[in-house]
Amino acid sequence: MHLKELDYLELPASADMHVHLRQGGMMELVVPQIRQGGVDTVFVMPNLEPPITTVAQALEYQSRLKAIEPNLYSSITPEVIAEAAAAGIAGVKVYPQGVTTNSTSGVTSYEDFFPVFEAMEKHDLVLNLHGEMPSGPISDITVLNAEEAFLPTLLGLHERFPKLRIVLEHCTTAAALAAVKACGPSVAATVTAHHLYLTVQDWCCDPFAFCKPVAKTPADRDALIRAVCSGDPKFFFGSDSAPHPMVAKRGGVKGRSKTAAGVFTQPFASQYVILALEEAIKRGTINEEDVTQERLEQFLGGFGRQFYKLPAATNGERIVLERKGAVIPESIQSRDGSIEVALSRGGDNVLSLRWKGPVGIN
Q: Which end of the chain has fewer CB atoms within 10 angstroms, the N or the C?
């Protein structure tokens, strides 16, 4: 596919299997951006304060967002898993304590949750893993090797629970891709848009490129690109779009706080992927023939829906991408101006996107 020469591209709606929509005013600002990015199906990561730990809480949040899963927390039991499955909840997220936004209630011991994982395997719920080990003052684990240090945990969980569907979220390294490939068909991974173009050279100098897990080396970025174009159903799109107030990305009002971790891509989720593929072709990471319509459709939506046992996008709606000089804005704001969120790569040119209805309806 000659992306740079492409003026018109029609695709099924994208499925974003890893998004952050927050709560309160931020949620009200971000949720309307989902469809702007060509997405009609989302799997929401509720990194909230307080964490969601009951089915009732998850269903209440689901009523506002349409798709949600409960965070895995110490109050979750096998009985809660059975209740969640009966209620139609798709998965449970687990993140280690302290590795990402709102993770102070994260887990410290996976073994403590083996009965929960066994119940999830029995009821066919998906385990969504934030695949990093926490760092510490006497540990040699840093943001650069935290993902690779986690991979033995992934492999151990898969060995102990071989039928448990597991998603290693937001892969950033060639090693993570290899680990997922080494597992059986019950293990898959999401790949973000921003990890397809960012490297350590970007976030070390730009707070708006800083996220967790952090972007790694150019070789890791290119491995992700090749996975996207491989046609392997183990790898599908999950933007990990993570909005933060602009002031939080700049270190707080006085600039002395830690930079909030997260890259916001939701309003152009589908276009960022295509932009990254265009750039990868230009630098020779992949060839034009590596990007096909079928592989693009499967990565952006087909494989994710398949893994989560969701129906294909069959309501007739499609997205149309055209080269019309669209530009990513620097930020979006709430109506009253109280919340401002910066977008990744503000000022860059991207394909425009519009929705096309069922056959005969535009």
A: C
Alpha helices in 132-173 (DSSP H): 146-160
* Number of alpha carbons in the 13 Å side-chain half-sphere of residue 236: 23
The rounded distance, in Å, linking the Cα atoms of 279 and 90 is: 35
Please give the full DSSP string across 28-53, using - where no structure is assigned: HHHTTHHHHTTEEEEEE----SSPP-
Spatial contact of 96 and 61, defined as CB atoms under 8 Å apart: no
304, 343, 303, 308: which is closest to 327 by C-alpha? 343
- What is residue 299's DSSP assignment? I
Please name which of 108, 101, 43 lies closest in space to residue 72, comparing C-alpha atoms: 108
Cα 145 from Cα 28, distance rounded (Å): 35
Identify the helix (H) or strand (E) that includes residue 200: helix 200-203
Rounded to 5 degrees, φ, ψ at 216 are -105, -135
Q: 90-136 pLDDT, tens per residue?
A: 778 786 655 544 444 446 688 888 998 999 999 999 999 999 998 77
State whether the Cα torsion 343-345-347-351 is positive or negative: negative
Is 0.85 surpassed by the pTM of this model? yes
Q: What is the pLDDT of residues 57-80, one digit of tens each?
A: 777 776 665 433 233 233 345 665
* Torsion, CA 267, CA 22, CA 129, CA 79, rounded to 10: -140
Q: pLDDT digits over 153-206, tens only?
A: 999 999 999 999 999 999 999 999 999 999 999 999 999 999 999 999 999 999
Q: What is the pLDDT of residues 233-255, one digit of tens each?
A: 999 999 999 999 999 999 887 77
